């Protein structure tokens, strides 16, 4: 059951937390869960990134939480409003799996790894170090980021729970 | 939407018959639901993004491309194996190579019958790719089928047909998620104007 201090991040969604709260997103497949954290002021942010670049967007009004290149800047600016500093931020990444071994020869197949690459490129731009990651492979993940401790918990069907 | 419902009805009807023949049991089929749904709700329809399910995925290629999933709850998958192949299920938690291979083949047969009836009905060329199987969180699996829609918005068209066996031993879903470009072609093939 969802407790009160859970802050849900949906698919193609992002959210931030300050001091307390646990940011949670479920069922990451090829999507990437990006978490940013400033431990000094205890401000955390999480985005559930679905696609690598907003350049391929064909939608009228772009959902900036959906694309790596737009979600990360937005996450940073929302965290800054809560007193975080980009120079102190550290990132953790999870997801970016390739769920199906065979699925035709289209580009969609490699979307997981591409999402991860694109997130890392954006983080590099802001010189935010990637402190830990659990990406790739072929399984789904649910992640929870504890704003108080800075610990990212990763749960999967086959591999159980791990923390980093 | 009624046209798409009929499309789902015909495809799933054939698949249900095929499943019924395979299991030698009557299989009930719910009237397909056809809806534009937010991504989150698509996962809700199988019990939430975190629910572990067994899914057989095929990409539909040809005139009206799309993604297709045959989804079984884990208990149902074991029941299918017991009923159909007479396999002694040894471990409720784990699947053997043989079990996975049998399930993959079942998915293949059902999806094939779904698609070939659709192709006959619409006279569109629709070819399934080799199926691929995964046991994982519904959200992780289904999001894969929503990527094409991801470029357009936050909703996808889902044709969802639910299967039930008498004692609820077998419960499954057939999801057809046509690519955004495919609706027009399906409508045109059926001589109906796109909404």
How can the largest sheet of chain A be summarized? Answer: 5 strands, mixed
Largest interface chains and counts: A-B, 35 and 32 residues
Separate helix tally of chain B: 7
Q: In CATH terms, what is the architecture of chain A?
A: 2-Layer Sandwich
Radius of gyration of chain A: 15 Å
Run of helices and strands of chain A: EEEEEHEHEEEE
Largest sheet of chain A, order of strands side by side?
1-3-8-9-10
Shape of chain A: globular
- C-alpha Rg of chain B, in Å? 16 Å
What percent of residues of chain A are in strands? 25-35%
CATH C-level of chain A: Alpha Beta
- Show unreliable segments of chain A: none
Key features?
heterodimer; A: 164 residues; alpha+beta; 60s Ribosomal Protein L30, Chain: A; five-stranded mixed sheet; 2 helices; 34% strand; B: 195 residues; eight-stranded antiparallel sheet; 7 helices; 8 strands; 44% helix
């Amino acid at each position: 059951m969802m407790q009160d201090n859970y802050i849900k991040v949906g698919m193609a969604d992002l959210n931030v937390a300050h001091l307390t709260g646990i940011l949670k997103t479920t069922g990451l497949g090829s999507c990437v869960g990006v978490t940013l954290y400033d431990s000094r002021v205890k401000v955390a942010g999480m985005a559930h990134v679905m696609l690598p670049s907003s350049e391929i967007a064909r939608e009228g009004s772009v959902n900036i939480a959906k694309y790596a290149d737009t979600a990360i800047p937005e996450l940073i600016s929302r965290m800054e409003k809560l007193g975080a500093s980009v120079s102190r931020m550290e990132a953790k990444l999870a997801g970016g799996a390739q769920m199906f071994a065979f699925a035709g020869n289209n580009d969609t197949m490699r979307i997981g790894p591409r999402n991860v690459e694109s997130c890392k490129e954006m983080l590099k731009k802001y010189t935010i170090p990637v402190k830990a990651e659990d990406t790739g492979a072929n399984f789904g993940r649910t992640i929870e980021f504890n704003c108080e401790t800075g610990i990212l918990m990763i749960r999967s069907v086959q591999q159980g729970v791990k923390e980093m | 939407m009624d046209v798409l419902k009929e499309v789902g009805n015909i495809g799933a009807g054939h698949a249900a018959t095929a499943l019924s023949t395979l299991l030698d049991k009557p299989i009930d089929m719910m009237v397909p639901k056809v809806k534009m749904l937010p991504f989150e709700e698509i996962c809700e329809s199988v019990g939430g993004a975190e629910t572990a399910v067994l899914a057989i995925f095929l990409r539909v290629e040809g005139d009206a491309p799309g993604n297709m999933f045959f989804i079984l709850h884990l208990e149902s998958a074991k029941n299918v194996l017991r009923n159909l192949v007479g396999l002694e299920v040894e471990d409720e938690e784990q699947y053997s190579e043989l079990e996975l291979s049998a399930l993959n083949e079942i998915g293949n047969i059902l999806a094939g019958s779904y698609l070939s009836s659709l192709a006959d009905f619409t006279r569109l060329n629709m070819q399934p790719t080799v199926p691929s199987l995964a046991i994982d969180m519904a959200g992780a699996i289904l999001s894969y089928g929503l990527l094409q829609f991801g470029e357009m918005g936050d909703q996808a068209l889902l044709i969802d047909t639910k299967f039930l066996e008498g004692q609820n031993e077998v419960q499954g879903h057939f999801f057809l998620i046509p690519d955004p470009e495919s609706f027009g072609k399906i409508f045109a093939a059926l001589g109906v104007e796109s909404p």
